[in-house]
Amino acid sequence: MATTVPKLRSETLRTLPDDNVRQILWHFADRYDLQMVVQSAREVARGPVARLVSEGSRGSHEWTSKKAELLEAFDQSGITAVFMDPEHGGYLVGPKNLALALIAFELAWVDAGAATCSLAGCLALAPIHERGTPEQRAHYMALAAPPAPGEHRHTYRGAFCLTEPIPYVGVDTGMLSGKVRVTEWADGQEPLLHVEKRGRFITNMGFANFVTAAVDSGDDRIKGSCMVIIEESDPGVFDLTRWFYRQRIEASLTRTQRPWVLLLDPGVHAAWQGQGASGPVTPELITVPVTESMKRTSVRGMITPPADQQTIRPDAKLLFVAGAGWTKKQKDGQTHVPEAEALIVDFLHKSKASLGSSKSLVELTGKNQSALRFMSHLNQVGQTGATPRHPKGLSTCCHGEEPHTVGWRFIGERRAINLDPNCGWARDKADVLYVADAFEVMSKVNALLGS
Predict the structure, then answer these.
(1) Span 233-290, pLDDT tens digits
(2) Pairing between strand 225-231 and 174-175?
(3) Mean of pLDDT values over 417-431
(4) Residue 390: which of 324, 318, 333 has the closest Cα?
(5) Rounded to 5 degrees, what angle do the CA atoms 92, 96, 98 make?
């Protein structure tokens, strides 16, 4: 006689670990100072950070006066001083990694940007703390620590500038782009250094008072790479390009304000020496005349391709996306890149559609492979590219994986052409999937458009 054995259900975790469990798991149950750090960070996360999130501040990357209030909250709660040693205004002795991780954990429960902002200031100080001279450590650590009771001064904020993301590819691909050269080196004097550094998407750059930037040697007299400290008072020129993805425009901006990416400076910053000021401070009101020309942006000119050569058309009714499959071997065992270029250009000319691309296709140019000559990173759609907003979209020779299709979330009607019936588009990512040869389909479509 057969018998059945009841299947026992394994017990699962019914709730997240509380503070007592975390203290045991992360080995700080006997550290009262770290427990207080957790409570202070949690109070900031559920107070000022949560209020900013509820007000919609997370929807913009611009630094505002409301966001600046977070810095004061970090100072008052003790978050800022966690990285400092006691002799520099801190209160924790020994390694600080666990304390910083606990702070980031609590802040990230509400907003990861707040956690990144907190950690970025510590990253700026880390090279100075680990490899700076004793004078540099004493100078910058003391300035970056919040003022003591009765002390009236500004808290120094830092930014850490390491790599430069390759434009239009995303922050996951970076390179060390800075260079340092010796401009002048007189006998018995410190060398005068010429430092060039590009920095995009650098956290805390909107309010930092100093930057620690990684640069590589551009001079035979300097070996290897190094970190340089750039202050807001250093002379320099800020020259950048900014990509406005909604308008598909690249703008070039130049100004003399921070983040101070070009400067001439002695090789070592020594601590300031001298007597402090005494007596009351009397503010002086200075009237600065502002002429009408100062209130407006001057347009120096516009550079646009002819209408027939324009491939990016934000106002087009159709987005046509080409994938890397156009450059692969076809059913005859050969590649047909020139034919693919002709088909796509002909379709764009007749339909006036906007051209998009997968990341795989635009990266072929850097791998010495056959690629579509008119395609660039400006056309890239997806997680590390643009997020267009066309009423309709047609994908061709693109497999439809998540990093690419996330850029389609604002496309109204989605259709795709692919030989693989099990491609990513078939998994509820396209309204219509044509299992067909894109060369044959687009040839027929161009013929119909031509008639």
Answers:
(1) 776 654 444 555 444 555 555 544 444 344 444 444 455 567 766 777 677 777 878 7
(2) unpaired
(3) 87
(4) 318
(5) 115
Q: Domain 19-144 sits in which CATH superfamily?
A: Acyl-CoA dehydrogenase/oxidase, N-terminal domain (1.10.540.10)
Q: Model-level pTM greater than 0.85?
A: no
Reply yes or no on domain 307-450 having CATH 3.30.230.10. Answer: no
Contact assessment for residue 168 and residue 380, using Cβ atoms and an 8 Å cutoff: yes
Angle at 331 between CA 339 and CA 367, to 5 degrees: 60
Q: What residue type is assigned to position 94 of the chain?
A: G
**CATH node for 158-266:** 2.40.110.10
Residue range 183-240, pLDDT digits in tens: 888 888 888 877 777 665 577 777 888 888 888 888 888 888 888 888 877 766 544 4
What residues does each domain of the chain span? 19-144, 158-266, 307-450
Two tokens at 399?
């497999």
Q: How many Å apart are CA 296 and CA 3, to the nearest integer?
A: 87
